[in-house]
Amino acid sequence: MAKVLMKGNEAIALAAIKGGVDAFYGYPITPQNEVPEYLSKHLKANGKVFLQAESEVSAINMVYGAAGAGKRVMTSSSSPGIALKQEGISYIAAAELPCVIVSVMRGGPGLGGIQPSQADYYQATRGGGNGDYQLIVYAPESIQETIDIMKESFDIADYYRNPVMVLVDGLIGQMMESVDFDKPVKERFLPEKDWATNGTKNHPGKINVANSLHIDPNNLEKHNIHLQEKYNTIRKNEVRYELVNFDNPDFVIVAYGTMARICRSSIELLEKEGISVGMIRPISLFPYPKEAFTKIPNKVKGLLTCELSHGQMLDDVLIANNGKHKVGFFGRSGGMVPDPEEIVEAIKNFDERVVN
Amino acid sequence: MTVKYEKTKGLTDKPLTYCPGCTHGIVHKLIGESLVELDILDKAIGIASVGCSVFSYQFFNCDGQQAPHGRACAEATGVKRVLPDNIVFTYQGDGDLASIGIAETIHAANRGENITVIFLNNAIYGMTGGQMAPTSLIGQKTTTSQDGRNQADHGNPIKISEMFSTIEGVAYLERVSVHNPKNVIKAKKAIKKAFQYQKENRGFTMIEVLSSCPVNWGMKPVDALKWVESDMIPVYPLGVFKDKGVNDEKN
Fold this sequence. Notes:
The structure holds two protein chains of two kinds.
Chain A (H helix, E strand, L loop, with lengths): L3 E4 H11 L4 E4 L7 H12 L3 E4 L3 H13 L4 E5 L1 H16 L4 E7 L15 H5 L10 E3 L4 H18 L2 E7 H5 L1 E4 L29 E2 L6 H21 L3 E4 L6 E4 L2 H16 L4 E6 L1 E3 L15 E6 L5 H9 L5 E5 L8 H9 L8
Helix pairs in contact in A: 1-2, 1-6, 3-4, 9-11
Chain B lengths: L23 H14 L6 E5 L7 H4 L3 E4 L5 H11 L4 E7 H7 L1 H9 L5 E6 L29 H4 L5 H5 L5 E8 L3 H19 L4 E7 L3 H4 L3 H15 L3 E5 L8
Parallel strand pairs in B: 1-2, 1-3, 3-4, 4-6, 5-6
Antiparallel strand pairs in B: 5-7
Helix pairs in contact in B: 1-8, 4-5
């Protein structure tokens, strides 16, 4: 397949099909509607399952059911819809069921707006569901990167028996880019799903149960420790980030997704003015790429965290920085997307931005 | 020596967690027997809900999933859509199905999901200690309606079978009771028929089973069974509410 011009949400849908999705369960919400719309036509045509649920709550529980049955399953939604899915996401993570959740962020809080935002960083990495659980969270910056990650996400989810969230915003969902669907995906050894609840006929002598209830506190703590060990393995193996312009920077920007794209332009503008700015672009938000911060030269004057929010990833930057450098913040919200020049100004007036 | 009666292979040997005098155990047995008699135990997946039957996945001798409160029909839908040749059933109480999970249940029925719902109506929240349910009777004293349920504050008991009888996707719907042997036999027939219909891909089937809760009703087990007959059945009449029939066209 040659390069094609495609809208972000539709590309997410096609990448899911390329990634081997067996079933999609979702509920309409702007700005991700092209994902279910595309899948409603193309999944059924391929003998797979597409079902529009009566609510986000129901959709995520359908995902639980189908994931428990051993199938490759996904849902997609946007901010208030992801909020409604949090209960189910906690159960899925607790029961160690693999699935892919696409979150196309829009402005919040509440009903908020429908324009691009990154105000659901906490929602993705801290979770609104109960208990000690983690999603594996990827935040691509382009449609191509979104496609590559989507295709691989099903393998990663199966490998760790953990939900993977692909976190983009309305801008990536709605824009069009020239993309390639044929990039190979890293091969992983994926064991057979001998835990699937697909009838004892398929595994005689053994009853399989998808469950998150451990009424004996000893067992629940053991289960939690097991989950934490898994999350630590993920922290060790699945960190992804990009270092941009890291040769000899005066400042370092930390930004992900759409904001990182804008910052690339800001870095070029600053270069022309003789100010060298590097960038840490986290691609995995959990696990957070703390190690990238060890590569920041000592002489750097400060780190500017840029987000389409009022400072959520900022917490992780402060943790990773561990007091070493001055940390500043620049953010826009509510669907307001900054021009590169605004970040140029923020770097030039860095001292006014410092939060630590 | 002939074996006249034995425990169904449809249930595991795990001791039940239900209170003395509770009728959940009878209903479990009827489900287990039906799955064995229809030869579908090895392709059955039971969805446990939240409530007294939260551990039911430990009791049915088949694969299972434990659903969040109220979401059993959504989970069952998720499973059945990807495994259409398996048998999928939910086991839910009245708090789970008629209160928090009513949306999931109505829409699963409306889609005509080819699943079987076993709905235990004991007119109270059992596991949490006897709070008022949407199915509690007018005048019924519970820990959250200590002067008795009244219509002005709480509305009337919700009649699930009557409501669901209007839904096109429902293939078979019957309300039964297990308060005496005669009705247990009728309940068995209904439950088995529901699974038979699922086997034949007829659509959504639901059996509402009136059940007693002596502990939370504050009654002796025998009195509780009598109360089912004297007080519950007049509000929740038994019978077939919908049956698309063996000779009807599948829709």
